[in-house]
Hints:
This protein is of the alpha+beta class. The chain contains twelve helices and five strands. It is elongated, with a radius of gyration of 31 Å. The two termini are 53 Å apart.
Amino acid sequence: MSAMTEDPRSEEEARAERLVRIGQPPRNRGEVLRKLVWILPWLVFLGAPVQDLAAGHHTTAATTAGWVGLVAFTGIYLAVVFRTMGRPYAGWIVTALVAVLWVLAVALALSLGSAWLGLFVYVSVTCGVTLPLSAAYWTIPLTTVAMMLAGWFVDDLDDAWSLFLIVLLVGYSMTGVRQLVRTTVELRKARATVAQLAANEERLRLARDLHDLLGHSLSLITLKSELAGRMLPDHPDKAAQQVADIEQVSRQALVDVREAVTGYRRPRLAGELAGAQVALTAAGVIADLPAEPDLTAVSEHSESALAWALREAITNVVRHSGAQRCVVELVRRQTLDGPMLELSVEDNGSGGSGKGPGNGLTGLTERLEKARGSLEATRLKRGFRLVARVPADVPAALTDVGSPA
């Protein structure tokens, strides 16, 4: 019965969240396992080399070298592909590791026989996933040719032909998947930009509203003040009425302004993430930001505190760090104090020249303490890391953390 009453929108939102996480580093153990599910089934082609070694067809030295080569090949393959699905290695490291895979596949196939031709499938996959597309388009057919030559050398072209289309097509299919992931990431960044533009539009709307409200009210106050000044010597009663009207207009103007800015000065984490993307990109800093944050059951006070923390951290990165890369992570953690929402901002810059916490960090610490949270600022060997934590279940009656002075 519970399955029948399940909200279909929650399932759709969960599916959208999984799609958004494509091409992003795993945030928890569950996401690590889901990414492994995409990688491990491809290891089926290692069955032939394992059976070949277990059958005892080779000398002890050859068998030992085969096991060492197979473990090294598998480890490099998993490392390169898994990191590419999160935070990839530098380009020269990827090129070197792909070259090592290529050499191992050729050497093992030529020395141990046709059972090892399946290793070229992994080389083709790695080329399609990790190398630039311009390089992948010619390394994949080159890998296929190398596999065919290895099959010809070991006098087993039948096995080589059976793998020909697999090696060729699986590499090119990985380039398609890669471009799909890239499109997904670009769409996510576009959504963040749209959110920032929407925030800017809201600011313009508020400016127009305040101009209309205060322009009318202040003009009326000015007019009645002049009338009261002229009436004051000879008609104190009428002047008092004008002063009373001024008080009423002032109070109404205050009510109108409060209504106009209700909910506006409280920052939202999604908007701050979008603003961080724009600020870091404008400063020439490579930004690694999470997608739309999961704020289920998180109070506005906790979200507001983290939003101020993110704004302060990004401001410091842009103004003082001189960093080339900034990584922002948002995770939930279960602690002895209950569920916590943790925001981490880490850069690889110099961290500025200050020796102690500045006014911004001091004020931020006070703001987080009002939300029952905490702040950690750590200077790294190369860079700076700021970690802000707030309870994920702050009571709604908690005092507002406010806005900066």
